[in-house]
Amino acid sequence: MMRPSPELLAVSRRLHQAILAGNTKILSGFFSSADEMRFIGTAENEYWNGSIVSEGVGDFFKDVPDIYAAEEVEAEAFENGETGWSSFVHRVHFAGLPEPSLQRTTLVFVLDGAGWKIIQRHGSAPIPNTVHMGAEQTAIQRLVNAARDEGPAIDQTEGLASVLFTDLEGSTELTAALGDTRWSRLINDHFRVLESIVEAHVGQFVKSLGDGTLSSFPSAQQALRAAKNMQEAVQSAEQEPQLGLRIGIHTGDVVQARGDFFGAVVNKAARITTTATAGQIMVSDVTRAMVGGAKEFRFSDSLSVSFKGLEGQHLIHRLEWDS
């Protein structure tokens, strides 16, 4: 059923806040790396597609001149099942230009794993870029040209891995209560803590997904230890509000390409995450079997569940972590 989406409105505003703040390093986490990705702008040549867009989006917005002031004129968002969209109008005044001008943005979202990802972005101004902000934006085009010159990327590997998803319970309400600026600082600090824990357990912090993350580990034991440390770190944090972290883990063969992970294992790990509540770690039966009888891990609340898009019943277990 089609309905207004406060969640997508909040995600869209966090994207815009990151752009305004010049926090371009996190921008790729908002965008899908699927081949169906479309990125459309104002200038004649600004129509790009494919996974290369998410790689270049940070540099694209880094090319934007300094913004003197920005005002949200209109904003709305809707969702319908596993798709959604938002549209915004901002009045933007770029430094060095005499007058502000309007910037119109439409974002189309799809559910990717445990979070929303942008599958199409269309931004436009009623006047050319050189007049609107005093410069053209060429970052993604440069990346596309380089990829074309170098030929197709063959950076694809396969292997066994334990995939770990996180997300935050009640993030939409927290965003509304805190405001986009404070929430953006809070979530960025949260991501940095999780990334340090992943790296400490020989894992790979793959990407952030709105208010969640995707990581990969070479062994199930390392993934479970990291998950326990993540919950401990969130529980012991002294700041308010207290975040409600949910974690899901599954183990199997994954495909890695362009620094991202794909396949049924990733999809199932994301689905498992949705079965957890704040403070819980849910793992697949395969992941539990991989750690065997290791005494450091205790499991409870085994459940047989069905997942949308995956056949049959799936046995999952709750990993006890709070001693």
Q: Any idea what the shape is?
A: globular
On the 0-100 scale, what is the average pLDDT?
83
Would you give the CATH topology of the largest domain? Alpha-Beta Plaits
What characterizes the major β-sheet?
Answer: 8 strands, mixed
How many angstroms separate the termini?
43 Å
| Main CATH class of the largest domain | Alpha Beta
Low-confidence segments, given as residue ranges, are 129-141, 150-155
* Count of strand segments: 15
Oligomer: single chain
The CATH superfamily label of the largest domain reads Nucleotide cyclase, GGDEF domain
Helix content: 25-40%
- What would you call the structural class? alpha+beta
Radius of gyration: 21 Å
How much strand content do the residues show? 35-45%
Topology as H/E string?
Answer: EHEEHEEEEHHEHHEEHEEHEHEE
How many structurally independent domains? Answer: 2
By CATH, the architecture of the largest domain is named: 2-Layer Sandwich
Distinct helical segment count: 9
Characterization of this structure:
The structure is a single chain. 32% of the residues lie in helices and 38% in strands. A hairpin with a 2-residue loop joins strand 9 and strand 10. The strands form 2 sheets. Strands 8, 9, 10, 11, 12, 13, 14 and 15 form an 8-stranded mixed beta sheet that branches. With 323 residues, it is an alpha+beta fold. The longest helix has 21 residues. The protein starts with a strand and ends with a strand. The chain is globular. It folds into 2 domains: 148 residues, Nuclear Transport Factor 2, Chain: A; 165 residues, Nucleotide cyclase, GGDEF domain (Alpha-Beta Plaits, 2-Layer Sandwich).
